[in-house]
Design goal:
alpha/beta; Alkaline Phosphatase, subunit A; nine-stranded mixed sheet; two-stranded antiparallel sheet; 27% helix
Length: 476
């Protein structure tokens, strides 16, 4: 038990600890280094901040893959059919429904029918539209949650809240909380990895995977496509392993000469950074290389099709990372708010579903056939859904009041549908799950009590769910 009587997973930051000093570190490769290394060979070795931690109860999931559809997919065109909406199409929002306040003001546009064809799938009979034929084949492993809601009216605060729990920037991301509480099972790879289908385009950028007020140790590390998946890692061709090892040893010797300056934690950070770089140079290239993946496996993810190849590769990399012990992987699809269908939703969503449907289904099937789905929690969703009212004639506006997400694996009971929105899909009405509840549920599935996972910041005990969310235990 610690000073506040919190079990081992309830980590705390005290001013007298070295972790407090580490939080002064800047970003950059040193941050990447601190995220995963146990300095086994360092003369100034410190406790590894990402050493695997204890859980509060037996975990159902050991790792997370969060498929984030940035821009807001339309729940009423994908997983939440609304016959009443089509019946009322072209008419104004009935008086029985509260008016919606959007970033542009009160919304009074006519209702827009869904043109989708709906069908029940699997033994569970889960409803899925014709836009997602591949994911539809996986519904018996999926729990659909139709009653999510949040507070973000625009993309910046919506994406921020889905990642950090708050519509205001500055808090740690969910991935940072997970790695802070549970550590990593691989000291040669980052504990928290982020991949974008279009690098550099996600709203808010790295703030979404920041460690916030925690040490940079816990922030996400971007992995890219191409010849340099992890920036500033590749060793110059003129530098051999032996020569690099000699340089590191010499630098460590210099640092040891200043070991008496214990308040200068930068010395520890430098050693950690160099050692992790050395280890990652050996393991990271193998982890992000697809050379040993069969053509059949790559085809399962859609890598044989130019429409699905980019996101398919990211999904396959996610599987390779979690099977190597990476704790939290976030995959952004539609980076740059491309799911934001204010106009022409038919063309917009049709193309985006086409490029993401097969890769996501391939990920689920591959995890399952390898026995990884049991302890890997897969999450699918965006920052909000879309309104039943029309915008610009053939589009839909932002809807944080009621939308759909789904989870699979990680102890979640598949083939189930939870919660509901009203009869036109505007508001969540049954088993309403705020984003705080979703975050609390994810932590709980990983064996963490969200009220006991604590970080002391400026004398205030901070929690991932902002003291509000509760685990939704009907999922198991």
């Amino acid at each position: 038990m610690n000073r506040l009587g919190i079990p081992p997973c309830g980590r705390l930051n005290f001013a007298s600890t070295r972790r407090d000093f580490l939080c002064q570190l800047g970003s950059g490769f040193g941050s990447v280094a601190l995220a995963s290394l146990l300095a086994k060979d360092s003369a100034l070795a410190v406790d590894n901040p990402l050493q695997p931690g204890h859980t509060h109860h037996p975990p159902r999931a050991k790792s997370v893959i969060f498929v984030f559809l940035e821009g807001g997919p339309s729940h009423i065109d994908l997983f939440d059919p609304k016959p009443k909406l089509n019946e009322l199409a072209g008419k104004p929002l009935p008086d029985s429904f509260d008016a919606v306040i959007t970033p542009m003001g009160e919304y009074d546009a006519p209702l827009l029918a869904s043109r989708r064809k709906w069908k029940r799938h699997g033994q569970s009979g889960t409803w899925v539209s014709d836009w997602l034929p591949h994911i539809a084949t996986c519904v018996d492993d999926i729990a659909v949650i139709r009653s999510c809601w949040g507070n973000g009216l625009n993309h910046s605060n919506g994406v921020c809240q889905m990642n950090t729990g708050s519509i205001v920037g500055g808090r740690p991301s969910l991935g940072s909380w997970v790695t802070y509480g549970l550590g990593s099972e691989n000291d040669s790879l980052p504990g928290f990895v982020v991949m974008e289908d279009t690098p550099g385009k996600v709203v808010n950028g790295p703030r979404n995977w920041s460690g916030g007020f925690m040490p940079a140790t816990y922030q996400g590390v971007s992995v890219y496509s191409g010849d340099e998946p992890i920036k500033n890692l590749q060793m110059p061709s003129s530098l051999t392993d032996r020569r690099q090892r000699s340089k590191l040893d010499l630098l460590n010797q210099f640092n040891r000469s200043f070991a008496e300056h214990r308040s200068q934690s930068e010395l520890d950070a430098r050693i950690e950074s160099m050692e992790l770089a050395f280890r990652m140079q050996a393991e990271a290239p193998t982890a992000v290389s697809l050379a040993d993946e069969t053509e059949r496996t790559q085809a399962l993810y859609g890598m044989d099709d130019e429409k699905t190849a980019v996101f398919g590769r990211n999904c396959l990399l996610a599987r390779r990372l979690v099977e190597r012990g990476v704790r939290f992987v976030q995959l952004y699809h539609g980076a740059g708010s491309r799911w934001d269908a204010h106009k022409g939703i038919e063309g917009n969503h049709s193309g985006l579903c086409r490029s993401s449907d097969k890769p996501v289904a391939g990920l689920l099937k591959d995890l399952k056939q390898r026995g990884l789905l049991d302890d890997t929690l897969v999450i699918w969703g965006g920052e909000f859904g879309r309104t039943p009212m029309s915008e610009k004639g053939d589009g839909r506006d932002h809807n944080p009041y009621g939308f759909t997400m789904w989870m699979a694996g990680g102890g979640v009971r598949g083939g189930a549908t939870h919660g509901s929105t009203d009869e036109i899909g505007l508001h969540a009405v049954e088993d309403r799950l705020h984003i705080h509840d979703l975050h609390a549920t994810i932590l709980w599935l990983m064996g963490v009590d969200p009220m006991k996972l604590v970080y002391l910041h400026k004398g205030r005990p901070e929690r991932a769910n902002l003291n509000e969310g509760l685990p939704f235990k009907k999922l198991v």
